[in-house]
Structures are given as structure tokens and as C-alpha cells.
Amino acid sequence: MSYDLLLFTHIASVILLLGVGAGSAFYKFMADRSGNLEVIVHTNKMVVLADWLFITPSAILQPLTGVLLMNMLNISIWTPWLLASIILYIFAGVLWLVAVYLQIRMKDMALEVQRKEETLGKEYFLFVKYWVILGIFSFLAMASVFVLMVFKP
């Protein structure tokens, strides 16, 4: 694979990862704030789907293309900016996995409440709070990785 194609794939996947993540977070946050159960159910379904279709492949492509670029450019894993990026990426990934678990649980909870014609309980909104906190820290970690990759301090 050529350097240009590899770099393009690496950059495109981070754009998808950060862009879809930020968009999904915004729509889910606004849907939950609306209190409209139909909107919440639909948005939860779409956020989970977007994670599987866009974020998961991007999250896999990032380290794969990163290692290939690292090898192609003969950059050591011990280079401080690269090592910091890897640590932050792993941190963001762990937070994201917990957030995905919560997303799936919230989707299931909302579907169950809709099926039973009830209202969302405190547990759902506690999960929302945790999800937002995890998302903020995960996004900041990924944004930091992006800054480190661009500026290589």
C-alpha cells in the first residue's frame, strides 16, 4: 500500500471516528433531554447502529494504519508523542467500550419501557449521566491523540 493511500485511510478513519462520535453524542443528548420516548428509542437505535457501522471499523483501522505508517516511516514506538498517543488511544478505547455497553443497555431499557407503555426510570437517566461523562473524557483523549499526531511535539 502506498504512503499516500495509507495516510489518507488513517486520516479518513479518524474523521469518521471523531465526527460520528460527536454527532451521535449530540443527537442522543438532545433526544434524552427532550423526554419524548419515541425520539429517545429511535435515537438510541441509531447511535448503536452508527457505532457498529462507522466507529467500530474506524477504531480498528486507526491502530492498523498507524502501525503500518510507523513502520513505513521507521518511527520507534518509544517516540514520546507516539507513545503518549497510544496510551491515550487505549484509554479512550476502554472508556468507549464502557459507553457502548451503556448505550446498548439504554437502548434496551427504552425499548422495554416503550413496549410496556411506561416511562423511563431513574436508572436510565443515571446511565445517561455516566455515558456523557465517559463520552467527554473519551472524546478529549481522542482529540489529544489527534493533536499529538498533527503537531508531534
Automatic annotation (TrEMBL):
The keyword Transmembrane helix applies. The lineage of its organism: Bacteria, Pseudomonadati, Campylobacterota, Epsilonproteobacteria, Campylobacterales. Pfam families: DUF2269. The keyword Glycosyltransferase does not apply. The chain crosses the membrane at residues 6-27, 48-69, 81-104, 124-151. It comes from uncultured Sulfurovum sp. Keywords: Membrane, Transmembrane, Transmembrane helix. It comes from the Bacteria. This is Membrane protein. InterPro entries: DUF2269_transmembrane.
